[in-house]
Amino acid sequence: MNAVTAVAHPNIALSKYWGKAPGLQNVPAVPSLSVTLLGLQTRTTVEVGVARDRLVLNGTEVEGAATARVIALLDAVRVRAGSTLPASVTTQNDFPTASGLASSASGFAALALAASRAYGLDCDAGEVSNLARVASASAARSLFGGFVELVPGEAARVVAPPDHMDLELLVCVTTEAEKELSSRDGMNLTREASPYYGTWLTEAPRIHAELRAAVLAKDLPRVGELAEKIALAMHASAFAAGVIYFSGVTTLLYQHVRRLRARGVGAWATADAGPHLKVITSAKDAATLAADLLQVPGVLRVLRAKPGKGASII
Ligand code: PMV
User: Fold this and answer.
1) Which residues touch 309 (CB under 8 Å, ≥6 apart)?
2) What's the gap in Å between 18 CA and the centre of ligand 1?
């Protein structure tokens, strides 16, 4: 039996992936750029040569449809490795579920890395990232550390290392509930029903290119401004299809961040397929800002995260 353990970290997109290119390989329709987060991690062990495929998630065995994407990733690895051996997958997040951070990104990044090594594949990080992408496109970015870009049809790649610029992310947790609509379903509905989806597909790459340049220039105010703009454009296209991830608290927080900015505070907002708001700021302002955001009615917790490293075998 061959057991391999990998760790990976969640990421938050500064420029957003929303929408899939036609085809089966889960290729994003638009480019995205994310920050891999320090301190929060998924730890996954893959053991090859057991009696049957098994998944244990946070200490509980998972069965049925919930295992489909995990088995599909194992199958993709087995095809490449020329193996038919079953595997057990044991995975643990050290950050709370409903923390507002997509555990699919760190989960599938850790799984792709552990599984490819456990089945003896000698592929590079880009190929492992491509395997992860088929399960969850945001997971392709979590293979790498720092500022990471995912361009349609290409493997994810590092744009800049974790210490490249002074940036911290504050995750305002607004609910403990699981999200009602998965990002996959939300993207499909947006493509099918939003009159603004076409505009999103042309605008997102343009804003992404500007944001990428602002990251390379270490220009935090410009990065924040563009990140806020692209997240609102993504949600606007989704809204128009009836896909609403915002809650009342998300909206309150957006207004709060705008008021702070009017007072000269360097804070910019972004949100993903859920009601939690993520605030982009500098390390020097992070502690004061986190305490301030916690006072907004409906905010349960504020998690702080700096840019961190990519997935690794332990
Ligand atoms: O890869 P998924 O299915 O978790 O989708 C991620 C979508 C967003 O979080 C909204 C944006 C992004 O680029 O991470």
Assistant:
1) 9, 36, 38, 145, 146, 162
2) 7
